[in-house]
Automatic annotation (TrEMBL):
Keyword GTP-binding appears in the UniProt entry: yes
Domain (Tr-type G): residue spans on this chain: 6-278
Top-rank taxon: Bacteria
Protein name: Elongation factor G
GO biological process per UniProt: ribosome disassembly
Native organism: Sporobacter termitidis DSM 10068
PANTHER family per the UniProt record, alphabetical: ELONGATION FACTOR G-LIKE PROTEIN (PTHR43261:SF6), TRANSLATION ELONGATION FACTOR G-RELATED (PTHR43261)
């Protein structure tokens, strides 16, 4: 069935890990007939978590796209992972969602994940609601969670349900404050019941709160409220919808996904209060011009996720304007290449249902696009426009990756290339200097998942180890040294003789000069001397790291008219280097990074203490627009390998940071000794 744009809702489920997002999506599908059985995470049979790693770990790893059909509307459900290592999946969902539901467990209170979800939605100016999950669990308290949200985010947070609690303290139903009806679950199905008389006084307070929120959405409703007239259900819904759209009202719901309690009320809200793509987010092109959500306009779609498996590649998209149909030819505005649209699908998790077209505002998938990546725009060749892309946080946690069995480096590289089609949040570089392949991502869980996928999908087992730091070496005093190479082995021999001044330079690159008098070294051998030195500085004397800030001046030497050659003078220069550098007071330089760490003020003491342990030098601090403290410091990058994990632990996941290379500095003596010992052990191991 094809739905008109005004009958489509695109919602993202966000929140902390294990707070019930996937179970809520499963409940919505089951209640609306999207599935014929209620999947459970423990059983590994949910629609949202279908990857092997998700089933094994019982957590969401990838963004899942599903849909429910309810009240003649199509609700596209974007179920996001709650673990912070997979924040890139959340960014993909929020790029195309028109509203968000922040899911929070009744026992867990206002979690870090809920705070982050709220901030993400606020940054994008998206309508949002709160769903308190597992309200029937022991020690769960819907009211406490609602109160915590209201205290943090203000009186715009408005309750839409009230739990019905029996004498034993167990939740056995809910009251819908919009329709003023009560529901329970009986034999797995929602059943309307009488509102308990004992709740009358409490409900009057809540009804008043709802009416006050409605009254504030328009002058006409405010006038009616103060005149003492009651609002009709239609007026309540209209007022609430206005408040939700204008971000002046944030409704709070609750329920239990496993029993289905409260799920229908949430679905009613999505249909009644959340905006359609015609009313929702205002799309702009990368150039800042508006992209109108016009069902009859020129085709424009953004690819927000890519799925890659043994059967091929699926590009999942949202149509921003017009429609996307089979056999269309569209232009990828990033590459300029044309893409022929073959098979189109709507997705129910991993299950795909083929369709002929996808209308404006709806979500679909297309297979086998030749040159399209996540974040790309596909549009009508006659109306080229590039939609704003997806911003991902840069990777902040790096480890060296290597095969368990030598010789499988190519398999790792090709496997990670395939995985990078799905996930743009990790990077892989081959560091020629440290001779390591370095995998960088958001944290240890993401890297662990990538390694598991390499084994399961590509048959290569890998090991992770700390990434080596790229140190440097330099000298601190001037020395003059002779390098003499003489070898006689029948026929022509080899002879090269040089005298070189080595001294600290001002440029990072080697500066080679000559100051030879009387032709003691012929000019045609100067390039060979320089080549010998450039080859030598690749390995320092102390720990084998590249030599920098070195000036070498050829001042004297001698030659043999028959036995001298370029090779002999190159070798003589290398001998001079090996003899002279140890005499020139060599030292090791370590890379210094510029750190910017954003944290709530309450963690300032822990952060500063930790920076001190890492030999960091604070440079300043200030408050950002969100009221968070931003601490800036310079810190040795060799001390930062585990910072992503340590910061998460210190701040319960509330902190974030960026780190960029700034310069090299001389390392303290004790650190230099440690670096030298590590390099020696590494050489012996090899």
């Amino acid at each position: 069935m094809t739905y008109a744009t005004e009958k489509i809702r695109n919602i993202a489920l966000l929140g902390h890990g294990s707070n019930g997002k996937t179970s809520l999506a499963e409940s919505m599908l089951f209640l609306t007939g999207g599935t014929d059985r209620l999947g459970k995470i423990a059983d590994g049979n949910t629609v949202g978590d279908s990857e092997a790693e998700e089933i094994k770990r019982q957590i969401s790893i990838s963004l899942a796209t599903m849909y429910a059909e309810y009240k003649d509307c199509k609700i596209n459900i974007l179920d996001t992972p709650g673990y912070f290592d997979f924040a890139g999946e959340v960014a993909e969902a929020l790029r195309v969602a028109d509203a968000g539901v922040v899911v929070c467990g009744a026992k867990d209170g206002l979690t870090v994940g809920a705070e982050k979800a709220w901030r993400y939605l606020a940054e994008r100016k998206l309508p949002r609601a709160i769903y308190v999950s597992k309200i029937d669990e022991e020690n769960g308290n819907y009211k406490d969670v609602y109160t915590a949200f209201r205290e943090k985010y203000g009186t715009s947070v408005c309750p839409m349900i009230a739990p019905i609690v029996n004498d034993a303290g167990k939740v056995e139903g809910i009251v819908d404050l919009i329709y003023k009806k009560a529901f329970t679950i009986e034999n797995g199905k929602s059943k309307e019941i009488e509102i308990p008389a004992s709740m009358t006084s409490r409900l009057e307070v809540l009804y008043t709160a709802v009416n006050e929120s409605v009254a504030e959405t328009s002058e006409a409703l405010m006038e009616k409220y103060f005149s003492g007239e009651e609002f009709t259900t239609e007026e309540i819904i209209s007022g609430l919808k206005t408040g939700v759209k204008e971000l002046t009202l944030f409704p709070v719901f609750g329920g239990c996904a496993l029993s289905g309690l409260g799920t229908r009320t949430l679905l009613d809200t999505v249909v009644d209060l959340f905006p359609s793509p015609l009313e929702g987010r205002k799309e702009e092109s990368a150039e800042g011009t508006a992209i109108e959500a016009n069902p009859n306009g020129p085709t424009c779609a953004i690819v927000y996720k890519t799925l890659s498996d043994q059967y091929g590649k699926f590009s999942i998209f949202k149509v921003l304007s017009g429609r996307l149909a089979v056999d269309m030819t569209l232009v990828n505005t990033r590459t300029g290449s044309q893409e022929k649209i073959g098979h189109i699908y709507k997705l129910q998790g991993k299950k795909s249902v083929e369709v002929k077209e996808v209308v404006c505002g709806d979500i679909g998938a297309v297979s086998k696009l030749s040159d399209t990546k996540t974040g790309d725009t596909l549009c009508d060749p006659k109306n080229l426009v590039t939609a704003a892309g997806i911003d991902f946080d840069p990777p902040c946690y790096s480890m060296a990756i290597a095969p368990k069995t030598k010789g499988q480096e190519d398999k790792i590289a090709s496997g990670l290339t395939r995985l990078a089609e799905e996930d743009l949040t990790f990077t892989v570089i081959n560091n020629a200097e440290t001779k390591q392949m370095v995998l960088s991502g958001a944290g240890d869980i993401q890297l662990d998942v990538l390694c598991a996928k390499l084994k399961d999908k590509f048959g290569v087992e890998v090991v992770l180890a700390p990434a080596r730091v790229a140190y440097r070496e330099k000298i601190r005093k001037k020395v003059q040294v002779r390098g003499r190479h003489k070898k006689q082995s029948g026929g022509h021999g080899q002879f090269g003789d040089v005298v070189i001044d080595f001294e600290p330079g001002t440029e990072e690159e080697l500066v080679f000069a000559e100051n030879v008098f009387g032709g003691s070294v012929p000019k045609n051998f100067f390039p060979a001397v320089e080549k010998g030195l450039r080859d030598s500085i690749q390995k320092g004397i102390l720990a084998g790291y590249p030599m920098v800030y070195l000036k070498a001046t050829l001042v004297d030497g001698s030659y043999h008219p028959v036995d001298s050659s370029e090779m002999a003078f190159k070798t003589a220069a290398q001998l001079a280097y090996k003899e002279g550098i140890p005499q020139a007071n060599p030292v090791i330089l370590e890379p210094i990074g510029y750190l910017s760490v954003t944290i709530p003020d309450t963690y300032m003491g822990d952060i500063m203490s930790d920076l001190s342990k890492r030999r960091g030098s604070p440079m300043g601090m200030n408050l950002n627009a969100d009221g968070m403290q931003v601490v800036e410091a310079e810190v040795p990058m060799g001390e930062m390998s585990s910072y992503a994990i340590d910061l998460r632990s210190m701040t319960q996941g509330r902190g974030s940071f960026t780190l960029r290379f700034e310069r090299y500095e001389e390392a303290p003596a004790v650190v230099q000794q440690k670096i030298i010992e590590e390099a020696k052990a590494l050489n012996e191991a090899e």
